[in-house]
């Protein structure tokens, strides 16, 4: 250890009247002194200066590292047992008294130290302690739990429990596709329009406009198995309540917040949900996924498409050859439909019809298989929505047409 380092270290020790622990001393020289951690570096510096080991209250950290050794592990274990939470990976965060943070920075500024702040060392020491004793690993990319240790009260002498621990349990995300095989079920829970979810006679005190949803038929079972706090459903678009979702199904991500149990058998859950749903909905290809996936499936893109089957009823008689006119439908200008104008911005959107196949049934009825760019309103494409969709099926056939039944057959996403 060269003399310049030792001289600067001695000056630092004297400036604190010797009241600096090995952790804080070693941290200030972590970029130029070899050692097995900052505490070891501090001890080597004192030994090189022929100084005795320091035993007192550190002016910088107020012996916060003693609190880590004495209290943190027990408090974390206590919280784990209280919540009965299972996890494999974690990260650590801490909250420190501002006096400690400010004094640490003052020392660095005064002596021109360009080293890590005290908060990083505190987090690292807690992480090392927990890894060694909990047999779980620190993982900054996909942690199950955030362990937050609050030291902000350690400078209050009258506080019997100055260290607090909080566990933040991160969500799990389950991706899959759903099929809705019957009409009359919404994708997500709808609060009662009269009581806004509080419960009233109108909704039989359930707080819901509809007794069940695609979301609830799955989430209630998953919440039971994970002991989670809440579920949130993220779908790649949604179909109307009176529309079935058939074919390959619609992609979705189910987010389970604060799951106490993370290791669940998704195949068994799918079987259990099938019994609960009783043929009304199906959930396919369930798998665990990452947080970013919930945003990916919701983002609309020109590359996404949907395929529909529509049963169309016409006011006037048509001939089978009239259906050939439907091939002229290509680029559609759609103003926000009347039925959703109360909750969607009033603007004109241009969407592409990629292909149409029409099957004549009788003089006033035909079936249409239509592939479109995502975001095209099919019911309005058929009816014209009082001229807000242009062109429309009604316009090209020369008669008012309505969508009597609609099924989604395929939803394509990136």
Write a structural description:
With 414 residues, the protein is of the alpha+beta class. Helix content is 30%, strand content 27%. It folds into 4 domains: 46 residues; 106 residues, VC0802-like, CATH 3.30.2130.30; 127 residues, Alpha-Beta Plaits, CATH 3.30.70; 108 residues, Alpha-Beta Plaits. Strands 5, 6, 7, 8, 9, 10, 11, 12, 13 and 14 form a 10-stranded mixed β-sheet that branches.
Give a quick set of tags describing it.
414 residues; alpha+beta; VC0802-like; 10-stranded mixed beta sheet; 30% helix
CATH class of the largest domain: Alpha Beta
Counting helices, strands and paired strands, the structural category is alpha+beta
Residue ranges: pLDDT <50 for 5 or more in a row?
A: none
| DSSP strand count | 14
Percent range of helical residues: 25-40%
Q: How many DSSP helices?
A: 11
Quote the beta fraction: 25-35%
Overall 3D shape: elongated
How many separate structural domains? Answer: 4
CATH fold annotation of the largest domain: Alpha-Beta Plaits
> Between the first and last Cα atoms, what is the distance in angstroms?
59 Å
What is the CATH-assigned architecture of the largest domain?
2-Layer Sandwich
Alpha carbon gyration radius: 32 Å
Order of helices and strands: HHHHEHHEEEEHEEHEHEEEEHEHE
Oligomer, anyone? single chain
């Amino acid at each position: 250890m060269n003399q310049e380092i030792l001289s600067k270290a001695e000056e630092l020790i004297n400036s604190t009247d010797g009241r600096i622990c090995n952790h804080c001393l070693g941290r200030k020289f972590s970029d130029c002194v070899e050692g097995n951690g900052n505490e070891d570096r501090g001890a080597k510096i004192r030994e090189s200066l022929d100084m005795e080991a320091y035993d007192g209250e550190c002016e910088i950290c107020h012996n916060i590292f003693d609190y880590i050794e004495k209290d943190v592990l027990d408090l974390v274990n206590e919280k784990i047992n209280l919540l009965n939470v299972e996890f494999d990976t974690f990260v650590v965060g801490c909250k420190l008294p501002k006096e400690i943070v400010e004094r640490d920075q003052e020392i660095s500024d005064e002596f021109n130290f360009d080293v890590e702040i005290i908060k990083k060392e505190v987090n690292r020491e807690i992480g090392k302690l927990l890894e060694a004793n909990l047999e779980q690993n620190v993982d900054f990319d996909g942690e199950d739990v955030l362990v937050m240790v609050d030291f902000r009260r350690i400078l209050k002498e009258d506080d019997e429990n100055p260290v607090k621990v909080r566990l933040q349990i991160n969500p799990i995300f389950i991706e899959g596709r759903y099929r809705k095989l019957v009409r009359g079920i919404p994708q997500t829970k709808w609060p009662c329009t009269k009581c806004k979810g509080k419960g009233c006679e109108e909704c039989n005190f359930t707080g819901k406009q509809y007794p069940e949803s695609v979301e609830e038929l799955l989430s209630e079972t998953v919440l039971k198995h994970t002991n989670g706090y809440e579920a949130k459903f993220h779908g790649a678009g949604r179909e109307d309540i009176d529309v079935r979702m058939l074919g390959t199904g619609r992609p979705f991500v189910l987010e389970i917040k604060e799951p106490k149990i993370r290791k669940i058998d998704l195949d068994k859950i799918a079987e259990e949900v099938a019994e609960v749903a009783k043929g009304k909905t199906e959930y396919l290809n369930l798998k665990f996924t990452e947080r970013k996936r919930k945003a990916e499936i919701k983002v609309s893109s020109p590359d996404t498409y949907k395929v529909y089957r529509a049963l169309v009823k016409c006011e006037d008689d048509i001939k089978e050859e009239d259906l050939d006119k439907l091939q002229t439908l290509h680029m559609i200008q759609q103003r926000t439909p009347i039925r959703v104008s109360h909750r969607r911005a009033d603007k004109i959107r241009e969407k592409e019809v990629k292909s149409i196949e029409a099957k004549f049934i009788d003089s006033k009825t035909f079936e249409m298989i239509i592939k479109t760019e995502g975001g095209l309103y099919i019911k309005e494409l058929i009816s014209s929505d009082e001229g807000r969709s242009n062109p429309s099926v009604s316009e090209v056939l020369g008669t008012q047409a309505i969508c009597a039944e609609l099924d989604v057959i395929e939803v394509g996403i990136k």
